[in-house]
Automatic annotation (TrEMBL):
Residues 3-86 form the Dynein heavy chain AAA lid domain. It comes from Mohoua ochrocephala. Residues 93-338 form the Dynein heavy chain C-terminal domain. The lineage of its organism: Eukaryota, Metazoa, Chordata, Craniata, Vertebrata. The gene is Dnah8_0. GO terms for molecular function: dynein intermediate chain binding; dynein light intermediate chain binding. This is DYH8 protein.
Length: 340
């Protein structure tokens, strides 16, 4: 009756190899490979898994071993159906892990390259951050803007979270300065201060800051983003609603879109909120080219594509450009429509 290929594919994709796969997407990919490869076409003389990867026709075990030795030690991403950029991502992640390990095992008491101690370097950095740290928010301004407006409710929530970040950063920096001066004791019980000292010296984000905020690659990028996020919220409060929003600068981007949908529903008296859907148009404009707000909905920017490219002229997705991992999208027009 021939080979039961369904049985072969099940044994490979679900039992022998599949039983070791823990990620659902990896299991789906494995079963996809099994469906494509394991069929009668395998016996065709021209069959190959990828260029140069064919099923060897050998008579002895030694011949199979010799063939295996000729295979490359490192497979290219194309062998697995991936874009060449996938190898860049892999190498980058591996390098980051190695550098993190090297940083973690460095002696904690060594001085800086200029002869400064760790404490003096961190003290100077803390003073610089405290000087640039934004002041606390004046929430009375929100009442004048209209406390029950959907967008203003969202703004209030964002300000509350940003205020918490600013307070935590200011408190920990002041305590760290006092501990370095010797005014307070940096004992083993003060794990947050010790963690802040170690991480700030290595240009990494202290854990107590990361818990209340967002992730970033370095302390410098994190602090710059704090200033940029604060600038967007402060501009919204004191200069009015922005013409285009930096959506990735919000703690809760989904809440922002929900507030926009509620605002559109209230503007159209005959719309029901549960029947309203969010749509978007990718424009051909950059943030700097936006001169006015849309008649309905909002303009947003700050979104990136990974694993794909963007043809701005035709407004379609395209294959990634070699060696370019991330592509910034133009401004998007997000708006609500009645789907009933």
């Amino acid at each position: 009756q021939g080979i039961s290929w369904n049985t072969v594919r099940y044994m490979i994709g679900e039992v022998q190899y599949g039983g070791r796969v823990t990620d659902d997407y990896d299991k789906r990919l494995l079963n996809c490979f099994a469906r494509v490869w394991f069929n009668e076409n395998m016996f065709d003389s021209a069959f190959c898994f990828y260029t140069g990867y064919k099923i060897p026709v050998c008579k002895t075990l030694e011949q199979y071993f010799d063939y295996i030795q000729l295979l490359p030690a490192m497979d290219s991403p194309e062998v697995f159906g991936l874009h060449p950029n996938a190898d860049i991502t892999y190498q980058r992640n591996t390098s980051a892990d190695v550098l993190d390990t090297i940083t973690n095992i460095q002696p904690k008491e060594s001085g800086g390259g200029s002869g400064e101690t760790r404490e003096s370097v961190v003290y100077r950095s803390a003073e610089d951050m405290l000087e640039k740290l934004p002041p606390d928010y004046v929430k009375a301004r929100l009442v004048k803007m209209g406390a029950l407006n959907s967008m203003n409710i969202f703004l209030r929530q964002e300000i509350d979270r940003m205020q918490k970040v600013i307070t935590v950063v200011r408190t920990s920096l002041n305590d760290l300065k006092l501990a370095i001066e010797g005014t307070i004791v940096m004992s083993e019980a003060s794990k947050n201060l010790r963690d802040a000292l170690d991480n700030m010296y290595d240009a990494r984000i202290p854990q107590v800051w990361r818990r209340v905020s967002w992730d970033s690659s370095t302390l410098g990028f994190w602090f710059t983003e704090l200033l940029d996020r604060n600038a967007q919220l402060s501009t919204w409060i004191f200069q009015g609603r922005p013409k285009v929003f930096w959506i990735t600068g919000f703690f809760n981007p989904q809440g922002f879109l929900t507030a926009m949908k509620q605002e559109a529903t209230r503007a159209h008296k005959d719309w029901a909120l549960d029947k309203v859907a969010i749509h978007n148009d990718v424009l051909k404009l950059t943030r700097e080219e936006i001169t006015s707000s849309p008649s309905e909905g909002v303009y947003i920017y700050g979104l990136y594509l990974e694993g794909a490219g963007w043809d701005k002229r035709r407004s379609i997705l395209v294959e990634s450009t070699p060696k370019i991992l991330f592509v910034q999208l133009p401004v998007l027009h997000m708006f609500a429509v009645d789907s009933s």
